[in-house]
Amino acid sequence: MSEGDVKEVFTGMLAELDGEFESRWLSEFAPLQRRILRVLAELGEAGVTEVAERLEVKPSDISSTLTRLREAMVIGLGDGSYRIVDTVFARWLTAA
User: Fold this and answer.
1) CA-CA 20 to 30 A from 20: which of 12, 28, 65, 84?
2) Residue 66 CB: number of other CB atoms within 10 A?
3) DSSP H or E stretch at residue 86
4) pLDDT tier, 24 (very low <50, low <70, confident <90, very high otherwise)
5) DSSP string for residues in 36-75
């Protein structure tokens, strides 16, 4: 199996999961959560200050939202950086 084969299968899997992810995206996440998740998907991982800068808000404006996303186990925190736990969901966000 080649790298191209893996990419092709992964792309197919993303297309297959598109409806499920879209439904989850629209029903589970508030607008600020969506903005934060898009930034994290784009950056891979980032600290609260970096996310806030990308969103052009103060870190205090997003800290409770980050906490809620962590409590829901959508994002994780390690070494001061947040990341989306579900890497397939994160990849879908960058492709959507």
Assistant:
1) 65
2) 20
3) none
4) confident
5) HHHHHHHHSSB-HHHHHHHHTS-HHHHHHHHHHHHHTTSE
* Rounded Cα gap, residues 57 and 11, in angstroms: 34
Residue type, 38: R
Give residue 88's domain range: 3-95
Distance CA 62, CA 67 (A): 9
Q: Tell me, what DSSP letter sits at residue 57?
A: S
For 33-67, the pLDDT digits (tens) are 999 999 999 999 999 999 999 999 999 999 999 99
What is this structure's pTM? 0.81
Residue 28 sits in a domain whose CATH number is 1.10.10.10
Q: How many CB atoms lie within 10 A of CB 90?
A: 20
Q: Name, in order, each residue with C-beta under 8 angstroms of 77's C-beta and a sequence gap of 6 or more.
A: 70
What total of structural domains would you count in the chain?
1
Q: Pull the structure tokens for residue 77.
A: 């925190």
